[in-house]
Amino acid sequence: MLLFRYSLELCSRCRLLPRQIRLIHQSAYLLARGIRRRPVEHSEEPASPFTKLDKNLSIDNDHSNQMSVQEQFARLELQRLEQESQKTVDQSSSSFVVEDNLDEEELENDENKQTRPFIDPSTTSIIIFPGQGTQFVGMGQQAINHPNVKEMFNIAHRILGYDLYSKCINGPIEELNQTLYAQPAIYVTSLAAVQKLKAENQKAVENCVVAAGFSVGEVTALVFAGCMTFEDGLRLIKTRAEAMQSASNEVNSGMMSVFVGRETKLTLAIDAAREWCNKYMKIDVPCIQIANHLYAECKVLAGHKEALQFIAHNYKVFGIRRIKYLPVSGAFHTPLMASAKLKLIKALDKIEMQPPLIQVMSNVTGKRHSNDVASIKRSLSQQLTKSVLWEQSIHKMYQRSKQNTYPNTFECGPGRQLGYLLRLNNNKAYQQYHHVDV
Length: 438
Fold this sequence. Notes:
Elements: H1 2-35, H2 64-94, H3 104-115, E1 125-129, H4 149-160, H5 164-170, H6 173-176, H7 179-200, H8 202-206, E2 208-213, H9 216-224, H10 230-250, E3 253-259, H11 266-279, E4 288-295, E5 298-304, H12 305-314, E6 322-325, H13 338-349, E7 359-360, H14 373-382, H15 390-397, E8 408-412, H16 417-425, H17 427-430, E9 433-436
Parallel strand pairs: 1-2, 1-8, 2-7, 8-9
Antiparallel strand pairs: 3-5, 3-6, 4-5
Helix pairs in contact: 2-11, 4-7, 4-10, 7-9, 7-10, 9-10, 10-13, 11-12, 13-14
GO cellular component, one term: mitochondrion
Region (Disordered): 40-61
Pfam family, one: Acyl_transf_1
């Protein structure tokens, strides 16, 4: 009888042993997980001139616990958003309606094709103007001795209230990098480059059929196209720069380049970052969006710093290949520039504009501006809070059949960033690219 009881007790203990072993393994796993630090991976900086690292925003290992929570949230949010996205696709596919509406611009182009004589594209030119971030100490000195350039800097001195040429030549770079000074400097030196190009290759200016500019460069392009005077353009730039600097000081925000591939779920990453900021950072209306479309594999995000940090901590979860902060103080081309937009609208109301003499591309639509002055003013104000569709503009400007040649492209202004983007978007068009140094 005793032997029987002993056998039963031994059997019951044997049955408990595997459960105890499992509990020991589970405890060890949880302990290891609690003390494990997730390593921070720093990607090598690519060759792109748009991807300078903001060292003040580097990821701190001391926040490993918070990052662990963020990563768990990111993965769960990605799963939820993918499920919702699939439901939306299923619903839309069940009620698909084919629309056969042609774009008004395409209709206009079809009509013009019947009336316009053929012009060899290789005899024409496109002039493009850079945006903020291209400034450097010494800009302007290679163009100063060309006709009208000194007078342009003298006018700038009177309108701005300080010696812009001295600021361009002597810096310091810390001041020249500020939005307040960078935008007027880029505007004036870009138009100074046009004067240099006119002196060296007058046909390139006379045969220009399209002008385009990145961000502040769009104003430069409109002035070049005769839409407004040099003085009015500079006054508009002055107001724009001051307003954007002020808006940047109102909220902790920034910009970040993200390098993507086919596997990247960038839209879901943006949605998850907004959800994180709303739930955990207590930001009522979190802002993060694509501010610049540069080329297929690179976009620029802008918005609240907290949202950008969420992306930086979890970029691999969403298939983003690399990220780099940009050395700017504000979230340009997002709704966080709303206060600057209002000030710009008031400045635009005071400026008299004329329809442009040549085609000028719009950052907001990625297509050419119409001849309606009110529409141009509206687009310039919207540009501060909407994405810059530069990639789309390039595709529109250089769209042609395979047998057609490409026009000569001249980048007028500091830096070669737009040429770099042209090469990545259309390498054939880039073969006819030239830079007018200042």
